[in-house]
Amino acid sequence: MSNRMKNPAEVIPQAYKGIGNLLAAVADGGLPETTTELIAMRVSSLNGCAACLQGHAVRVEEVGLPIEKIVGLAAYRESPFFSEAEKAALALADAVTRLADSEDAVPDELWREVTKHYDERQTAALILCIATHNLFNRVNVTVREDAENPFWMR
């Protein structure tokens, strides 16, 4: 499958800078890198973004994600390999990625679970991480970004 056009972040370089600033803010939010990678992979999987999944497959070894978490990501709720904090973060990623699937997209019970494990700065980083990866996915799926040679790896 070929790209429909250049990635919009290539066409409008200011967009790439803005996305970079969002990622830097997430990195500064106090979350473990393993958590942000799990979120990125979960969101990308839900959105069917092969280019992003491929990009994150390269990072999992760098951040030290064990194979049990990578393989078990689709069934994180039932998996014994995820901490309660990771499960809360992933549930938030599911809810925010699928906003239209529920009348109350982020119910209070989920919010309480997230904020039980993460302070305000970390929760802000979680929200920005989820939103930024949804942005990446929506752009990349729309233009059919090449998973074998995405523009950010060229």
TrEMBL record:
<dbReference type="InterPro" id="IPR003779">
    <property type="entry name" value="CMD-like"/>
</dbReference>
<dbReference type="InterPro" id="IPR004675">
    <property type="entry name" value="AhpD_core"/>
</dbReference>
<dbReference type="InterPro" id="IPR029032">
    <property type="entry name" value="AhpD-like"/>
</dbReference>
<dbReference type="GO" id="GO:0051920">
    <property type="term" value="F:peroxiredoxin activity"/>
</dbReference>
<feature type="domain" description="Carboxymuconolactone decarboxylase-like">
    <location>
        <begin position="13"/>
        <end position="94"/>
    </location>
</feature>
<protein>
    <submittedName>
        <fullName>Alkylhydroperoxidase</fullName>
    </submittedName>
</protein>
<dbReference type="Pfam" id="PF02627">
    <property type="entry name" value="CMD"/>
</dbReference>
